[in-house]
Amino acid sequence: MRVLVVNTGSSSVKLRLVDPDGALADRADPPLDNGTVSAERLATEVERFSGVDAVGHRVVHGGSAFRRPTALDDEVVARLRDLTGLAPLHQPKAVSGIAAMRSVLPGVPQVACFDSMFHADLPPEAATYAIPREWREKYAPRRYGFHGISHAYAARRAGDMLGDDPGRLVIAHLGAGASLAAVRGGRSVDTTMGFTPLEGLVMGTRSGDVDPGLVLWLLREAGLDPDEVGDGLEWRSGLAGLTGSADMRDVVSRAGGDDPDAALGLAVYLHRLRAKIAAMAAALDGVDTLVFTGGVGEHQPAVRAGAADGLGFLGIGIDPEANDAASPDTEITASGARVRSLVVEAREELEIARDVRALLRPH
Ligand SMILES: Nc1ncnc2c1ncn2[C@@H]1O[C@H](COP(=O)(O)OP(=O)(O)O)[C@@H](O)[C@H]1O
Ligand SMILES: CC(=O)OP(=O)(O)O
Ligand SMILES: [Mg+2]
């Protein structure tokens, strides 16, 4: 089965055609027009992909209803659209991509795979927010967690690379969005993103954790309205808010050239990253393997080195030469370090193609 995978992130759309043996047959990276994917644009791109047997879509938020890969029909698309408020940066783009692809390839089965599904069985102590019972009963908010397709792939790949169970695994998916997962036995037991993809690490344009008291203060005392606060925290915070650029390449090179804003931005990013790696290790009772993935995780040695710096007490240590020379997939463990550190290319399309085949294969 040849699967065309549509990966709609907050900042990009990636089209990948995956052959039955898992080989990448073709790829295209069309630009986002005004934040959405138009049917016309997709039609042009898709003409070049021949022999598509099925389409797999990355959808960030599955809410509480979608815990597994799900075949798409009108009703499912409508329910995904209803989840927009929970992932305003992502869900409208995914839904527009699904609508476009269904009109361009009618009759080809289409499946949604969710970033949240890998974290669907988080232990209650990791999934539960300490808020009033009444809200928990009425709105059922929980830590959903995201980037799960990437985390699931990285966990499997780490096992292949080590030729063994990776043990207590901390995965750092560092891209435009960024999150950590604590994984044991192939299952997520904790993660840094929450009810929405805004919680946790410092990201390209997102704040990650802030004091909820700050949000209340901005609304009540500073007189901002909810849309202004949302826009600020989603689009004008993170590296962009601290340095003027959401692109880690820029930030690292300017930080090296003594730009004080870039130096502070990188320091804040790394301070949070180290703290949260330690938190994931705590959820696992220790760590055996650390994986870096995503655009920043794969291509920014300074970020990997900065993340490991100060985590020697956990047994983490990165070899400076291997780290500077690393091209994924590779190991960068320092000699004598107890924790194995790996760099893994994010291959969400392979995980999605696998899920699509498993769902559509005749039983
Ligand atoms: N080849 C590269 N070299 C250095 N940094 C990169 C490279 N590719 C991506 N990045 C960094 O990764 C971030 C984007 O992550 P990526 O995973 O590509 O995006 P997305 O989350 O949209 O899939 C940017 O901060 C960018 O600087
Ligand atoms: C969930 C998420 O933040 O995805 P991305 O990194 O693609 O924006
Ligand atoms: Mg991404």
UniProtKB/TrEMBL annotation:
Class in the EC hierarchy, top level: transferase
Coiled coil: none
Pathway it works in: Metabolic intermediate biosynthesis; acetyl-CoA biosynthesis; acetyl-CoA from acetate: step 1/2
Cofactor remark: Mg(2+). Can also accept Mn(2+).
Gene Ontology CC annotation, any one: cytoplasm
Residues holding substrate: R58
Binding site for ATP: K14, H173, L174, G175, A176, G177, D247, M248, R249, G295, V296, G297, E298, H299
InterPro entries: Ac/propionate_kinase (IPR004372), Aliphatic_acid_kin_short-chain (IPR000890), Aliphatic_acid_kinase_CS (IPR023865), ATPase_NBD (IPR043129)
Binding sites annotated in the UniProt record for Mg(2+): N7, E348
Annotated site location: Transition state stabilizer: H147, R206
UniProt-listed NCBIfam families: ackA
Protein name: Acetate kinase
Source taxonomy: Bacteria, Bacillati, Actinomycetota, Actinomycetes, Streptosporangiales
Gene: ackA
